[in-house]
């Protein structure tokens, strides 16, 4: 198991103390699960002091947190070793496809419910396929919250890239 720090970024109407944050703290003691408030820029400002503490991160982002994790990986590619994005809000008005020369090259896994009623699977998938160069896109029979799926995912493999 790796000692790389892990940062979980929750969704817009959630918190670091919500279901996914609690579940991930049980899986990965020491994971950072801050509660962020406000719109995108204030949230990015709130996470910056944590993000700046380490030179390399595994980022796990859910919905709006997936958008934030993606933006951090675009702006600081050297500081993000792996991305796990759960139903990421890579949709307008929050996200527009960056310049065609902008790519995220770290290993990225997206888990997205085909029944997502908040962030449309069909809208995110083509954006993700253009943006991420090392992408594993997992479509699951779940909705936006991904509660059932969260408990079933192979978290050690997703975070550390191995099957141990």
In short:
The chain has 164 residues and is of the alpha/beta class.
Would you kindly provide a written description of the structure presented here, covering whatever features stand out?
With 164 residues, the chain is of the alpha/beta class. It has one domain: Rossmann fold (3-Layer(aba) Sandwich). Helices cover 34% and strands 18% of the residues. The protein is built from six helices and five strands, in the order βααβαββαβαα. A five-stranded parallel beta sheet has the order 1-2-3-4-5, sandwiched between helices. The chain starts with 5 loop residues before the first strand and ends with a helix. The mean pLDDT is 93.
Order of helices and strands: EHHEHEEHEHH
Mean pLDDT over the full residue set: 93
Return the CATH class.
Alpha Beta
Question: Radius of gyration from the CA trace?
Answer: 14 Å
Write the layout of secondary structure elements.
Blueprint: E1 6-9, H1 19-27, H2 40-51, E2 57-62, H3 64-75, E3 80-86, E4 108-113, H4 121-131, E5 135-140, H5 147-152, H6 155-160
Parallel strand pairs: 1-2, 2-3, 3-4, 4-5
């Amino acid at each position: 198991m790796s000692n790389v720090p892990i940062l979980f970024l929750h969704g817009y109407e959630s918190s670091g103390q919500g279901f996914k944050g609690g579940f991930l703290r049980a899986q990965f003691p020491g994971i950072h699960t801050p509660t962020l408030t406000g719109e995108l820029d204030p949230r990015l400002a709130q996470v910056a002091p944590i993000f700046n503490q380490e030179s390399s991160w595994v980022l796990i982002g859910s919905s709006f947190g997936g958008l934030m994790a993606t933006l951090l990986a675009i702006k600081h590619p050297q500081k993000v070793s792996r991305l796990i994005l759960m139903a990421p809000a890579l949709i307008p008005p929050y996200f527009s496809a960056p310049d065609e020369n902008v790519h995220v090259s770290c290993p990225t896994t997206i888990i997205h419910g085909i029944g997502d009623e908040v962030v449309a699977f069909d809208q995110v998938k083509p954006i993700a396929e253009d943006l991420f160069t090392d992408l594993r896109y997992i479509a699951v029979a779940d909705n936006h919250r991904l509660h059932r799926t969260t408990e079933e995912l192979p978290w050690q493999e997703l975070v550390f890239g191995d099957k141990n």
